[in-house]
């Protein structure tokens, strides 16, 4: 049976960072984390109705009641917790969100804890705020990837450290931290008075049946000391619209966060706000079908990669990203190996993991088959 996600959409490289990198070359781009799929009809309709009158004036995000209600309902639907609306803070992106958190909760010369390997803007955030970076390795146990908790406890006890940025579900390996792991992290943050900024942008892309995402704000031990960053951007493919939101239960932290961002970043913009509300309110069926499609793509890619000598793939519990260990290829330049075969992944080195590569599998199956064929040569 064909799916709406089988439709190939021609993207003009002029308007797509992903397609621009290899424009004019026979290389299939599968790096940056946006999808090759059209957003749900509810989103397209919301944007079209905005365009009907053609007036693009100001809207204060906090006055957009429909958006707050959409978030509250969505979080209850997806994650089983109904939060008070006043916990919500709109912002123009998750990356601006964790940068604002650095401004709000740290001072130059202090340290911030991050995990590694990791999404490059998290790995590099300390550089913008004159902070030291304390990197906690992701280790592999019986349950797959997890944080090295002893290392984390040691860093958190350092008196110059008062903030951690967590990425959960993890980018690049797609691991969803168990609630037990998060409880351990919460206890360490509580004991050492560390603010946890939790980047959960991929939390509505859980592919593995039975795996549940636990938002940071839902853990009692973290309610006084957390900023949970979320967005409809990845899930509904509206990343270019530049809107996300934070859930900050503690009023004092919320005030400090808002003060730190005041005047420095634009308000969340009107098309992005409307699209977010329309996605959460009207995109539920689309979202269910998307997860099925992505899960099948993941399984197809996993089987194919595991049969190729020198390559192996992490089992992505979430996200549309496949984390490939290519160190078995015994080549010096792993990115070149992929590009020579006409495939353009994200280089593992960007995530502090040379010898690895990240493939975005949110594309029509025919395109993924093409990628696999090229890698099999
Ligand atoms: C973990 C993570 N955080 C944040 C972002 C980007 O967020 P935004 O575009 O809202 O700044 C990405 C995009 O790939 C990501 O993977």
Q: How large is the share of residues in beta strands?
A: 15-25%
Domain count: the total is 2
Assigned CATH class of the largest domain: Alpha Beta
Order of helices and strands: HEHHEHEHEEHEHEEEHHHEEHEEEH
Q: List ligands, each type once.
A: pyridoxal-5'-phosphate
Say which CATH homologous superfamily of the largest domain is assigned: Type I PLP-dependent aspartate aminotransferase-like (Major domain)
Enter the CATH topology name of the largest domain. Aspartate Aminotransferase, domain 2
Q: How much helicity do the residues have?
A: 25-40%
DSSP strand count: 14
Based on secondary structure, the structural category is alpha/beta
Tell me the number of helical segments per DSSP (H or I, 4 or more residues long).
12
